[in-house]
Amino acid sequence: MSGKRQAASPPADEPDAKQAKGDDADAKAGADAENAGAEAGGDDPMETEENGRGDAPARRSLRTRNPVRKAATRNVGKAAKANATETKITQVTYKEGELLSDHLKADGALVEVKIPAECTVNTNQQVRSRQLWGTDVYTSDSDVVAALMHTGFWLPGSTCPPQLLELVATARAVPPAEQHLSTSRNGIRSRSWGRVLTGFSYKVEACRAITVNNQTIELTGDPERIKPCAPTFFPNVVESVVNTRASQANAERRQKLIQEVTIQYNLCNEPWLKYSVASVCDRGFKRSEWTSARLRRETLYLETHARRYELSYDGPVFDEEEENYDEVNAPEADVYRWGRCATPRDLRHTAELGVPLPKEELVDVATGVKWNEIRFDLNSVTIQGAEYKVVRLQWLPRIEPGGELHEDE
């Protein structure tokens, strides 16, 4: 055991005096810095102490950034910019005769056409002349107002609504169709055209109406807004009104109504008279001018839209104006025959068979019809209580079988 006395080691919890002095100096410098920052910036020292760093710059994260996420964000920005470029709408003002071909420059390009109210009427020359080619997809030289009418977005009238300021139609450029077909829709028929070699066609996607009060009304298209009429082989509804020169002159001189002669086409596509009570009424006060007496010399044919009927005299033929008229042997009352023609025939075949027609050419025959059992109404004929709706008629003289019908008859 050594004779020297060893120095006692300091306790583990007791700090080194030199180190403690250095720590006190650092704390004092930090406090001075905090007080200076508080006086300069007006910050609360307690808040600065809670933040932990005061005005010291934030420490930069050492974690590496994700390059995939950064690239995806960059691509999304480019896509949004591209979509904004693609949906750019070209706005033009409609003028009669101007084409959309100058504005349909790319597939999918949108053109917004502002149509003034005075151009939305059916007196528009482009609509009246049917400057429209195609169905749903129209050529670039097709009129927009006519296209709106054809698609059912707008049905123009003779005058524009007083509250309408303008129409705004949106058209999209599309590739030309192989063939632009012609169809009839909503009172206008489009024209047909082949494939367009250059440029684009267009279709109407939307339309809205702007009122004078700056209100917007969205319009919907309907190609069958006006129901088309079913076509028929025989133009039953086509009529021609003929005014003779003599009747017109007499009416102007006597200030009377002009009697019109209206023509319709029968089931054999031949011209007949339109049915009217004036065509079957008595012609005068003389007995020979009565319709009952006229049926002794002529046969009356009446037609509906699908059937033909015959009304003829069914008794012995006597003419009261002839010298050989035998009043004693004349029948007390005239009788008539009513029947439906089994097959409607033209005038030439009817004359060959004879007028009145033979019995084998008629069905549902009613014989012995008295005159008081026949009644002519405004648009129908009643025979023995049965009513028949008729639309046209024709008087034919009595013809023997195998005879001919002369032009003057």
Describe what you observe in this structure.
It is a single chain. With 409 residues, the chain is of the alpha+beta class. 22% of the residues lie in helices and 25% in strands. The chain contains eight helices and 20 strands. Strand 8 and strand 9 (216-219) form a beta hairpin. The longest helix has 25 residues, at 17-41. The protein is elongated, with a radius of gyration of 49 Å. The termini are far apart.
Question: What is the arithmetic mean of pLDDT?
Answer: 77
Unreliable runs: 1-8, 10-18, 36-54, 230-238, 324-328
Please summarize the sheet with the most strands.
8 strands, antiparallel
Counted beta strands: 20
* Percent strand: 25-35%
Silhouette: elongated
Number of helices: 8
Q: Which radius of gyration do the C-alpha atoms yield? A: 49 Å
Q: What structural class do helix, strand and pairing data support? A: alpha+beta
> Percent range for helical residues?
10-25%
**Arrangement of strands in the largest sheet:** 10-11-12-20-13-14-15-16
Question: What is the terminal-to-terminal distance?
Answer: 171 Å
Secondary-structure element string: HHHEEHEEHEEEEEEHEEHEEEHEEEEE
Keywords for this entry:
409 residues, alpha+beta, eight-stranded antiparallel beta sheet, five-stranded mixed beta sheet, 8 helices, 20 strands, elongated, disordered N terminus
Can I get a quick summary?
The chain is α+β, with helices and mostly antiparallel strands. It is 22% helix and 25% strand. The termini are far apart.
What is the fold's blueprint, element by element?
Elements: H1 17-41, H2 45-51, H3 67-86, E1 89-93, E2 110-116, H4 125-128, E3 134-135, E4 137-138, H5 144-151, E5 164-174, E6 184-185, E7 188-189, E8 201-211, E9 216-219, E10 240-242, H6 245-254, E11 261-265, E12 271-274, H7 291-297, E13 298-303, E14 308-313, E15 335-341, H8 347-353, E16 362-370, E17 374-376, E18 380-383, E19 386-389, E20 392-397
